[in-house]
Design goal:
This protein has 305 residues and is mainly alpha-helical. It is built from eight helices and no strands. Helix 4 packs antiparallel against helix 5, helix 4 packs parallel to helix 6 and helix 7 runs antiparallel to helix 8.
Length: 305
């Protein structure tokens, strides 16, 4: 707390400054020092009253804190056993509630968001149980009960996270399949990948998640390839063979970027054949344009005189 002398000195300086400012402003009046003095006196009274109120509140707060610490120190030892027993019973009740909610979510075919909420609840339970397990006054039976509950909750946590990831990825993939534009398909499919990747960070050995991620990436690749193949076919139909070749090259790039398997290799061969056919048609068109017409001056023989 600031000292009384420093506080009152500052208040006096402020009131004196106010006095001289008002005196200077009211020089046209007969007695300018009267209102200036009154204003400075009011400032001093307010400052002193505020100081008294603040000191009383601080003193009362200090006394209450001291009483509270003394009371807590006297009763801490007597309440430690009751607190640990109550903590164990609370965690047992929370475990039973989690098991009921988990069974209901699985039985009712709940949406992915429900499984995500249950995963978060399991995380909160594990954090609270770990803090309670570190309590020094916890009995061995209580520690064993907490450890058993943690193992059960970890199993539920894994189950609900994987269920959320699978359900969310499937929902996003179905939504992406219904979109007509390529960027919308890719954007929604990437959301499905984000859900799967967030689960893979915790359970990287889960093969089902890896299969789902590969399926979503295959969908993105096939959507891009189909998009560029369609553009190439339109360009070839309109006679724009160069543009059709460029579109086929883009499709071939996306198809072979992540490696080739049997299906991709067959698709790459089909696209390569289409590119060769377009190149042949483009070369034939150029030959027709550059070849001399029959009866032109270049093909005429010089006449004899």
């Amino acid at each position: 707390m600031p000292s009384v002398s420093g506080y009152m000195t500052a208040a006096a300086a402020a009131s004196a400054a106010l006095f001289f400012v008002l005196w200077w402003m009211l020089q046209g009046e007969e007695t300018p020092w009267v209102p200036a003095g009154l204003a400075a006196s009011v400032v001093m009274l307010v400052a002193a009253s505020a100081r008294v109120v603040v000191m009383r509140r601080a003193r009362s707060r200090y006394v209450r804190e001291q009483d509270r610490h003394e009371l807590y120190g006297r009763s801490a030892n007597s309440r430690s056993g009751q607190t640990n027993t109550r903590s164990t019973s609370l965690h047992s009740a929370a475990l039973r509630a989690l098991q009921k909610q988990s069974a209901a979510a699985d039985a009712n075919d709940s949406p992915p968001e429900t499984h995500r909420e249950l995963y978060d609840l399991c995380t909160d339970y594990l954090t609270s149980a770990d803090q309670a397990w570190r309590s020094p006054g916890l009995s061995p039976e209580g520690r064993l009960a907490l450890r058993t509950g943690q193992e059960r909750v970890r199993t539920m946590q894994r189950h609900h996270l994987l269920t959320w990831a699978r359900g969310s990825a499937l929902a996003f993939t179905r939504e992406a399949q219904q979109r007509a534009r390529l960027y919308e398909k890719v954007e929604i499919a990437n959301r499905a990948l984000d859900c799967i990747d967030s689960a893979l960070k915790l359970y990287p050995e889960e093969e089902e998640l890896n299969r789902s991620a590969r399926a979503v990436r295959e969908f993105i690749t096939s959507s891009r390839v189909a998009h560029w193949v369609e553009l190439a076919q339109r360009a070839a139909f309109k006679g724009h063979y160069k543009r059709a070749i460029d579109c086929y090259r883009d499709a071939l790039f996306y198809l072979t970027r992540d490696g080739l398997d049997k299906d991709r290799e067959a698709g790459a061969e089909r696209i390569s054949r289409e590119i060769e056919l377009l190149r042949a048609q483009l070369a034939t068109g150029k030959a027709i344009v550059t070849s001399p017409e029959p009866g032109s001056s270049k093909n005429r023989r010089p006449q004899r005189s």
